Structures are given as structure tokens and as C-alpha cells.
């Protein structure tokens, strides 16, 4: 039994996770702003257009689990998909962002959900973020419709404002929790034949040389 | 006021009437004559300015003025008034000019990189002056290159770019560039385009505030800069409906607007898109860009395999870091001062220059890149370290781009990319045992290959279109020869796989018999032969093992994991959605066909789990590089735990790297299967050997 052959790159410990999260959505709905707010806690309305993809990471702790989020911010324009599905390949979670003042951007979310479900099945955790709640007075996407849709496709819906730092933290936290529970579930499945204790065992001895692994096979 | 009304009897009465009826005349009069006009009504002589010729006369005969004199007086008054108005107009014009200059200065308010002295300005004057006096003679490219190296003063840049455009046009046949775009009417006037509405309006509008947001000219929301940007992008999207608007274009237009007026910028943009070939980058399929990214990968590999290996191992695809470089001509992430220097060369040599700059930049940062560990760090390095441009760095890049001779390779790789695409489709069409490809798909394939073809003919540098076609033909011929060679090799590889598979089975059986003993089954000579064929030093490995004796038998190998991995690979390929990989599937299904029969050649089917406490967990991590499909990397780590020996041997069959250095996926995969089979064989016989390290498969031609 090789404990290091878990699905995760961080492997040796079941209490540390590495997830890939991707932000998708139409142009100018605030994907970059959401990421910037979350990772660097700043808001800059003078950033340049995101071309292709950019990448940021964040480390968090949830109930003692160390989680490393690799967050991919993507270009909004459709033709960039011609360069390959690199954004969402192997993604554990996706945040679909729309602009509450832009009905079209919400429709775009629906096409994204379809595409992700088609390509990645149900393995991916979905969150939908209605961004720019600071422009509530100009809202064109009804809250009810958005939330109903999210529930329908099994996604969590959040109303966010990167500008006012509203609900951003919650959005990522919830997604991370769901990703952890999914991956823990996946880890447990194959261990039914083997032994859960074995995995825990090797956690504590992660730093101990390989010779100690005799225990796993005993 | 009696000056004017001397014929009136009563001066008092007339004075009143004058004030009533002649006040506007008076006003004009007052404006014309100097402000030192004496108070009216006292009859004192009016002190006319000396400049007016009439004044002296009117002074003399102020009591009696003839009609003629009065007319003269009026004439002079009117003349002066006209002069005044003219002066006011002139003033306004000057003010406008001043504003224009301010705008120009504002537009050019970017930081220049490196020093650009007076001498450079004179040099350009000289060069352009000479070219003007001899308009049929083309300027010496070497001369222009060295002048570019020394820099162009920014206030001259627009002019110099225009000059480059003329130089380029001189060398190319006008008809070639226009025939490619016969469906686009380039003669529609800009004004007319501006009057229309574009479907791309939303996409353009949302990018206005995100284009050079820190540049003063573009920073004010819907200010003159953003308006000009919008106009040009809109006009272009209407002119070239195939491209419409693509993100990244706004930066290119922005760079042009810094140096030109709106309409001129538009015509230069058209020139860049249609004559320099930038258009291919922005089309919805981004095929031109993909070719460029592929060229970049291959060039990095040629110039410095270490860097390519690092990027490859960290999954850093060129589209991740270099796509914005191409689309914005370095303007979005690099300083504007650098982007304009790149544009200097682009205007003269075409868009291939961008790939060369990208290559020079990547090569130049080897030290920093090699220190990176993991995708995150590499991307961070690209984002922060690489974009720091100093004048010394710039100088290095410029020299490298000008001096290096990468054109031939770039052409080869462009052709290679198209052949690779074509070949992948063709093999799929001819050999696929899978259900027939839908007609629609076939159509799109042929369309795409045609596009690749046109892409290639465009790739050939427009400056020497005449010569490039023979080169292209030769390259295609060479590629065809290579294809037939590869086909032969494929057949050979298939044979080898058969042999190896049968060997695997024999050895498994033998190993099972002697599972506890120290006797190891002898390695059949065929395996050694094949191993030496694919793995460098493979034969030695076996012979040394023979000499040292086999410490123990491996027990039964659990081939089900291998099977599972292969399935995973197939799944991976399917998910890749890259049609090229479909050509691989027949080969794999053949592999599985053997397997499923369970015949003497087969690998034990799935779920025939180990029953003697020995297991083999191998996790193969396979990555595909879409644009550099010639590589398939397999890192395999397997561990054996053998209770019978009471010690664990964790062996790492580590990085196993196939670099067949070519483009045919199928051959690669057969090579991979061979290699995998060898690996299996080795893991059977391997036990105390610890680490079997890196092998490099290189069956290059």
C-alpha cells in the first residue's frame, strides 16, 4: 500500500490539499477584481484586460486542513477557448461570475455550466457569483431567477461585490469546504478495501524515511 | 461727434441724434482708433494713429470732409476691423495648435527605454531624406537595422514607421496581399465606417477602460483617447468582419494612437493586419497565434532544451505566458517603451519579430526560470521578473532578434505544424476503425487544412515571396519523405511490441514458477535487442544485470495497473479534444485487442488482482502538450513491496522520457508502448536494484 499515491500533488498528508479553482464568465464582469480582492485584498478599477489566463494562489486553513488554492483567472472573450481548455482542465472548482447589471453575462453563465458539466461531469464544484452588488440600483438579473438556476444545477449562489469586499471571502471559503469534502469522499472510497488507519498512520510519519512504511503492509 | 455731422445746423441737437443713431458706428470707430481718442463732443482734433494714411489728411481738413474722405475713413476702419478679426482667428488657431501639441505630448508621454540622442534624430532625417530623393531605391536593411538599434526619437516614430511601410511595400508585389483578402473591401472610407453600427460594440466598450489605464491620454473615461480608440476598433470590426474585435487589439491600436492621428492610425492598423500578417493572430480560431506559439516552443527547445524541459515539466504551455505577448505586441505587460521598440522592428520585418522577441526574452531569463519550482513560480517569474525591462536588456534583445537567424527554423516549424495537423487528420480518416467521421467534421477538417495552407503561404516572409515557394515545396517534399519513413518505422515498432508482449508473458510465467527463489528467468535475447534499440544503454543494463546475477525474482507483476493506466491515457486523449490524438486510438485499441483476447500475447486483463501480496502501484503521469505534440512524457513510479523478502524495495522507475522529436502521434504512441513494455520487463527482473534512472528514448532519424 503506497500511501503517497493519493490523487493530490501534496500527497503525503491527507490534511493538506491542493485545489485548482477557475473563474469563468463574460468579459468585464469582474473576475479579475474578485480574485484580486480575495488574494491581495485590494480593488483596482484600473487594471488591464485579462488576456488568456493569469494565475494567483492562496493558502488557507479550514478546520486544521491546509488548503492551497491555485486560482486561474481567465479571459472573457470566447475565442480564447481556441487555445485549448487549459483553464478548466483538472479544475476542482469553478466560480462562474456574472454582472448583476448585465443580463447577457448571466446567460453566459448558463452556457459555461453546460460546458463544464459536459467536460468534467459532476466532479467539479460550482459556485455562481452575481458580482457588482454595489450597483444594486441598476440590477437587471433578478435575484430569484439566479438563485433558482443555481439550485437547479447544484451550484451555490453568492451576491458579491469586489469593490465593497462583500461576500468574496465567503464565496471562496464555501467552495473550498465543498472541494475538501468531495476529495475526502473520493479518498475514502478506495480505502474501503484497505485501511483508513493506514492512511492516517502515514500522515504522522510523513517526514519519517520510507523504511517505516513496513507498517502499511502488515 | 460733430466730425461726422458738420452739415447739421445745431451741434447740440446733432450731438443727441448722433448718440442715438450713431452709437454702433462710434463703437467701431473707437475700436479702430487708438484708445487715446479724445473725449467726443469737444471738437478737438482726433489724434489718429500715425499708421493710418488718412489720418493726417483728415486732421487737416477736419471741418470739411468730402464724401471721398469719409469713404476712405470708413475703408480704413473696415480694413482694420478685418485685420482684427483675422488676428483673433489666428489666435484661436494658435491656441488649437497649442492644444494639439499638448495632446501630442500627452500621447507620447511614455517612458523611453535607453537613450535616444540628437544624433539618432539626425540619422533618421538623413536616411529618410535620401530615400525621398531616390524613391525607387530600397534602403539597405542592415543600415535600417543598425539605426533601429540606436533608437528612434519618439516624436519621429510615427514618421519613421510610415517610412518603413513604404520600404516594405516597395519589396512586395501589391497584388499578393490584396488577393488574399479579396472579400474585404479595404477602400471603404473611414468616415463611412464610423457612421455604421458594430455588433462588437459591447466587447469594445468594456475594454476601453482597461487599455493603458495608467496612460494619461487613455485614462479619462470616454475622453478623447478612449473615443479615438473606440472609433478605430469599431471601424476595423466593420471592415474585417471575420476578425471583428479581439481582445488585445485595443493595445495595438493604443500604441498607434500614441503616434498618429485617428485616421492615420486606422490606416496603419490596416497595414499591420493585412500586410504584416497580424490579422491571423486575431481570427476566431486563433490559428495564426497557435502556429506562433508552436514555433516558439520548438525554438526554445532548439536553443535551450533545459528551459523547454523545465517549462514542460511544470506544465507551462506557451499559450499561458506568451499569448498576451503576441496579441498586444508586449504592450499589456511590458513597459510601453519596450513595446514601441518591438513595433519598430515589426513595422520593418513583419510579425515574426514578436516570436523572436519572445524567444530572446525567454532565453535571457534562463537563470531566473531554472530556479523556479512548479507552475506557480514559473508563472510568477513570467509575470514579474521577465517583464522588467532595462535598457541593457533591451539592447541585448534587439541585437539578438536582429542578428539571430531563426527565419528558416520558423518556416520549417510553421510547415511542420500544418503537416502535423493534416497528417493527424489524414491518418484518422484513413485508418480509423472507429465509426465514420461525420461529414461535417470532414468538411471542417479540409477547411482547416486549407487555412493552414494559406497560413503557410502567408508565413513566408512577404519580402521574398518569389523565393519562398520553392522552399515551401522542398519542405513539403521533405516532410512527405519523412512521413513514409515514419510509416515504415511504425510497422517495425508494431512488430517489436508483439515480440515484447509475448516476452512479458513468458517471463511472468517463469517468474511465477520461481516466485520464492533467487533464480530469475533469463531475459530473452530479443528483449535486449529491442531495449538497446529504444533505450540508450538498455543493452548494458541487461548485461550488467546478467553478470551481477539476479538477487531475487520479482514475483508476479500486476499488469492490471498498466492496463488501467492505458485506459486512463485513452480517457485523457478523449478529453483532450484535440483531434490529432484520435489518430492514436487505433494503435491503442490494437493494444487492447490483444489484451482482451487473453491470448498468449496478452497482458492479463483487469481485476485479476494480485494474490501473492505483491503489488505494483505505478502512477503514470502523462501530460500532453497540445502545441508540441511531438512529446509524450511518462513518469512512472512503481513500488514493490515483497513480503517474502521481508524488506521493501521502493524502486522508482523514474522519469521516462520519450522524445521522438517528431510529429506523428501514432509513432510516438507505439514508441511509448514499446518503452512501456520494456519498463514492465525491467520491473519484473528488477528488485534490489533500487533506482533505474532516466532513460532517454531517442530514435531520431
Strand content of chain B: under 5%
Strand segment tally of chain A: 6
Low-confidence segments of chain A, ≥5 residues, pLDDT <50?
A: 1-13, 191-218
Order of helices and strands of chain A: EHEEEHEHEHHH
Question: What value does the Rg of chain B take, in angstroms?
Answer: 40 Å
CATH architecture of chain A: 3-Layer(aba) Sandwich
Percentage of residues in DSSP E strands of chain A:
15-25%
Secondary-structure class of chain B: mainly alpha
Would you identify the CATH H-level superfamily of the domain at 285-429 and 442-457 in chain B?
A: Ypt/Rab-GAP domain of gyp1p, domain 3
What is the oligomer described by this structure? heterodimer
Helical amount among residues of chain A, as a percent range? 25-40%
Regarding CATH, which class of the domain at 285-429 and 442-457 in chain B?
Mainly Alpha
User: What is the CATH topology descriptor of the domain at 285-429 and 442-457 in chain B?
Assistant: Cyclin A, domain 1
How many helices of chain B in DSSP terms?
32
Rounded to an integer, what's the Rg of chain A over CA atoms?
Answer: 19 Å
CATH superfamily of chain A: P-loop containing nucleotide triphosphate hydrolases
Structure summary, number of beta strands of chain B: 5
GO molecular function, one term (chain B): GTPase activator activity
Protein name (chain B): TBC1 domain family member 1
Coiled coil (chain B): 476-503
Biased composition (Polar residues) (chain B): 49-59, 450-467
Task: Describe the structure in your own words.
The complex is a heterodimer of chains A (218) and B (701). Chain A is of the alpha/beta class. Chain A has one domain (19-198): P-loop containing nucleotide triphosphate hydrolases (Rossmann fold), CATH 3.40.50.300. The longest helix of chain A is centred in the last third of the chain and has 24 residues, at 168-191. Chain A is 34% helix and 22% strand. Chain B has 701 residues and is mainly alpha-helical. Among the domains of chain B are: 118-171, no CATH class; 285-429 and 442-457, Cyclin A, domain 1 (Orthogonal Bundle). Helices cover 63% and strands 5% of the residues of chain B. In chain B, strands 1, 2, 3, 4 and 5 form a five-stranded mixed beta sheet that branches. In chain B, strand 4, helix 32 (665-685) and strand 5 form a beta-alpha-beta unit. The longest helix of chain B has 49 residues, at 465-513. In chain B, 38% of the residues are buried. At the A-B interface, strand 2 and helix 6 of A face helix 10, helix 16, helix 19 and helix 23 of B. Chain A: Belongs to the small GTPase superfamily. Rab family. Chain A: It is found in: Endomembrane system. Chain A: Keywords: GTP-binding, Lipoprotein, Membrane, Nucleotide-binding, Prenylation, Protein transport, Transport.
Amino acid at each position: 500500500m503506497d500511501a503517497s499515491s493519493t490523487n493530490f500533488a501534496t500527497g503525503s498528508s491527507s490534511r493538506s490539499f491542493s485545489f485548482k479553482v477557475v473563474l469563468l464568465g463574460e468579459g468585464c464582469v469582474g473576475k479579475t477584481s474578485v480574485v484580486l480582492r480575495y488574494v491581495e485584498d485590494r480593488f483596482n478599477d484600473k487594471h488591464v484586460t485579462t488576456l488568456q489566463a493569469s494565475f494567483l494562489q492562496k493558502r488557507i486553513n479550514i478546520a486544521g486542513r491546509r488548503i492551497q488554492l491555485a486560482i486561474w483567472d481567465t479571459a472573457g472573450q470566447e475565442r480564447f477557448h481556441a487555445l485549448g481548455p487549459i483553464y478548466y482542465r483538472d479544475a476542482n472548482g469553478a466560480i462562474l461570475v456574472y454582472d448583476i447589471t448585465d443580463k447577457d453575462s448571466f446567460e453566459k453563465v448558463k452556457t459555461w455550466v453546460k460546458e463544464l458539466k459536459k467536460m468534467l461531469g459532476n466532479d467539479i464544484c460550482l459556485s455562481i457569483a452575481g458580482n457588482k452588488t454595489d450597483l444594486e440600483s441598476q440590477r437587471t438579473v433578478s435575484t430569484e431567477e439566479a438563485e433558482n438556476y443555481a439550485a437547479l444545477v447544484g451550484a451555490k449562489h453568492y451576491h458579491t461585490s469586489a469593490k465593497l469586499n462583500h461576500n468574496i471571502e465567503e464565496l471562496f471559503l464555501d467552495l473550498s469546504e465543498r472541494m475538501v469534502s468531495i476529495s475526502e469522499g473520493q479518498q475514502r472510497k478506495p480505502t474501503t478495501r484497505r485501511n483508513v488507519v493506514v492512511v492516517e498512520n502515514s500522515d504522522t510519519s510523513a517526514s519519517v524515511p520510507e523504511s517505516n512504511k513496513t507498517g502499511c503492509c502488515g | 461727434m460733430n466730425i461726422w455731422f458738420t452739415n447739421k445746423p445745431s451741434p447740440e441737437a446733432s450731438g443727441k441724434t448722433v448718440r442715438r443713431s450713431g452709437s454702433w458706428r462710434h463703437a467701431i470707430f473707437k475700436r479702430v482708433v487708438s484708445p487715446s481718442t479724445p473725449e467726443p463732443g469737444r471738437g478737438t482734433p482726433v489724434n489718429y494713429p500715425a499708421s493710418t494714411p488718412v489720418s493726417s489728411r483728415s486732421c487737416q481738413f477736419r471741418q470739411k470732409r468730402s464724401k471721398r474722405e469719409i469713404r476712405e475713413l470708413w475703408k480704413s476702419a473696415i480694413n482694420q476691423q478685418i485685420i482684427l478679426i483675422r488676428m483673433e482667428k489666428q489666435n484661436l488657431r494658435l491656441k488649437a495648435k497649442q492644444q494639439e501639441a499638448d495632446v501630442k505630448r500627452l500621447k507620447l508621454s511614455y517612458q523611453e527605454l535607453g537613450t535616444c540622442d540628437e544624433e539618432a534624430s539626425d540619422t533618421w532625417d538623413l536616411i529618410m531624406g535620401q530615400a525621398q530623393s531616390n524613391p525607387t531605391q530600397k534602403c539597405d536593411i542592415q543600415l535600417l537595422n543598425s539605426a533601429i538599434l540606436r533608437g528612434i526619437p519618439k516624436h519621429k516614430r510615427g514618421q519613421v514607421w510610415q517610412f518603413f511601410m513604404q520600404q516594405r511595400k516597395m519589396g512586395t508585389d501589391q497584388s499578393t496581399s490584396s488577393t488574399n483578402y479579396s472579400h474585404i473591401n479595404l477602400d471603404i472610407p473611414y468616415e463611412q465606417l464610423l457612421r455604421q453600427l458594430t455588433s462588437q460594440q459591447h466587447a469594445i466598450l468594456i475594454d476601453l477602460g482597461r487599455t493603458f489605464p495608467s496612460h494619461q491620454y487613455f485614462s479619462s473615461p470616454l475622453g478623447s483617447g478612449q473615443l479615438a480608440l473606440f472609433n478605430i476598433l469599431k471601424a476595423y470590426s466593420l471592415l474585417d468582419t471575420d476578425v471583428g474585435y479581439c481582445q488585445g487589439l485595443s493595445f495595438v491600436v493604443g500604441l498607434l494612437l500614441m503616434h498618429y492621428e485617428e485616421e492615420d492610425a486606422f490606416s496603419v492598423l490596416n497595414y499591420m493586419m493585412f500586410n504584416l500578417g497580424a490579422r491571423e493572430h486575431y481570427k476566431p480560431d486563433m490559428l495564426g497565434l497557435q502556429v506562433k506559439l508552436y514555433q516558439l516552443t520548438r525554438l526554445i527547445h532548439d536553443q535551450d532544451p533545459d528551459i523547454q524541459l523545465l517549462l514542460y515539466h511544470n506544465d507551462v504551455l506557451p499559450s499561458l505566458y506568451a499569448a498576451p505577448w503576441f496579441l498586444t505586441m508586449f504592450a499589456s505587460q511590458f513597459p510601453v517603451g519596450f513595446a514601441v521598440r518591438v513595433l519598430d522592428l515589426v513595422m520593418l520585418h513583419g510579425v515574426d519579430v514578436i516570436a523572436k522577441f519572445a524567444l530572446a526574452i525567454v532565453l535571457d531569463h534562463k537563470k531566473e526560470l531554472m530556479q523556479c519550482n512548479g507552475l506557480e513560480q514559473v508563472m510568477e517569474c513570467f509575470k514579474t521578473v521577465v517583464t522588467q525591462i532595462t535598457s541593457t536588456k533591451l539592447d541585448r534583445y534587439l541585437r539578438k532578434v536582429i542578428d539571430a537567424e531563426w527565419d528558416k527554423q520558423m518556416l520549417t516549424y510553421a510547415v511542420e505544424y500544418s503537416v502535423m495537423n493534416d497528417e493527424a487528420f489524414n491518418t484518422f480518416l484513413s485508418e480509423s476503425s472507429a465509426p465514420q467521421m461525420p461529414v461535417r467534421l470532414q468538411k471542417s477538417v479540409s477547411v482547416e487544412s486549407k487555412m493552414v495552407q494559406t497560413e503557410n503561404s502567408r508565413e513566408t516572409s512577404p519580402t521574398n515571396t518569389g523565393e519562398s515557394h520553392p522552399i515551401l515545396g522542398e519542405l513539403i517534399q521533405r516532410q512527405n519523405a519523412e512521413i513514409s519513413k515514419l510509416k515504415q518505422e511504425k510497422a517495425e515498432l508494431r512488430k517489436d511490441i508483439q515480440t515484447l508482449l509475448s516476452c512479458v508473458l513468458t517471463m511472468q510465467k517463469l517468474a511465477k514458477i520461481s516466485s520464492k527463489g533467487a533464480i530469475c528467468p533469463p531475459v530473452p535475447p530479443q528483449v535486449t535487442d529491442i531495449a538497446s534499440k529504444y533505450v540508450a544503454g538498455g543493452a548494458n543494463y541487461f548485461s550488467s544485470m546478467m553478470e551481477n546475477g539476479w538477487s531475487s525474482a520479482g514475483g508476479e507483476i500486476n499488469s492490471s495497473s498498466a492496463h488501467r493506466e492505458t485506459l486512463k491515457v485513452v480517457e485523457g486523449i478523449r478529453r483532450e479534444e484535440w483531434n490529432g490524438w484520435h489518430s492514436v486510438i487505433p494503435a491503442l485499441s490494437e493494444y487492447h485487442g490483444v489484451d482482451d483476447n487473453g491470448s498468449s500475447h496478452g497482458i492479463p486483463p483487469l481485476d485479476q488482482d494480485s494474490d501473492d501480496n505483491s503489488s505494483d502501484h505505478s502512477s503514470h503521469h502523462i501530460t500532453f502538450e497540445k502545441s508540441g505534440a511531438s512529446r509524450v512524457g511518462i513518469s512512472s513510479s512503481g513500488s514493490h513491496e515483497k513480503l517474502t523478502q521481508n524488506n521493501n524495495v521502493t524502486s522508482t522507475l523514474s522519469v521516462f522520457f520519450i522524445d521522438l522529436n517528431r510529429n506523428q502521434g501514432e509513432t510516438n504512441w507505439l514508441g511509448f508502448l514499446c518503452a512501456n513494455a520494456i519498463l514492465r520487463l525491467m520491473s519484473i527482473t528488477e528488485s534490489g536494484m533500487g533506482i533505474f534512472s532516466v532513460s532517454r528514448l531517442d530514435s531520431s532519424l
